[in-house]
Amino acid sequence: QVQLVESGGGLVQAGGSLRLSCAASGRTITGYAMGWHRQAPGKQRELVAAITRAGTTNYVDSVKGRFTISRDNAKNTVYLQMNSLKPEDTAVYYCAAGLFSMVVAGTSGSWGQGTQVTVSS
Questions:
Q1: What are the CA-CA distances from residue 61 to residues 13, 25, 66 (Å)?
Q2: In CA terms, which of 74, 111, 113, 114 is 20 to 30 Å from 47?
Q3: pLDDT tens readout for residues 45-96
């Protein structure tokens, strides 16, 4: 099973940007679809973005045009570039790996520990 470690979270003002990284170890990510989910206090975890092994991307409507998911297979890392951040983007962001359908559904078996993103107004 692949191990995932997220980084890059922090505190940013509304309108600012952050880039999250998800570094994988144990196995190469070339065999996995990858995704980012988030969970805000008192809310269910939701998919933010996912990327297939071939690079096709999928986004939740609320982040389309602002967030970009990408993968660097040579570095065994997945990124989430977040621009024009809003206070409602505040959440713990988790990286996931697995079959694309399972990553989208949030049922994949490999998850990171999460990184906190806080957007102040």
A1: 22, 30, 10
A2: 74
A3: 999 999 999 999 999 999 999 999 999 999 999 999 999 999 999 999 999 9
CA atoms within 13 A on the CB side of 75: 9
CA 94 to each of CA 7, 121: distance values in angstroms, whole numbers, following the listed order: 10, 23
Identify the residue whose tokens are 């024009």. Answer: 84
What's the CA gap between 6 and 17, in Å, rounded? Answer: 17
**Six-digit token pair at 93?**
């962001």
3-state secondary structure 54-79: CCCEEECHHHCCCEEEEEEHHHCEEE
pLDDT at 102 exceeding the cut of 90: yes
Q: Do 20 and 36 touch, CB atoms closer than 8 A?
A: yes
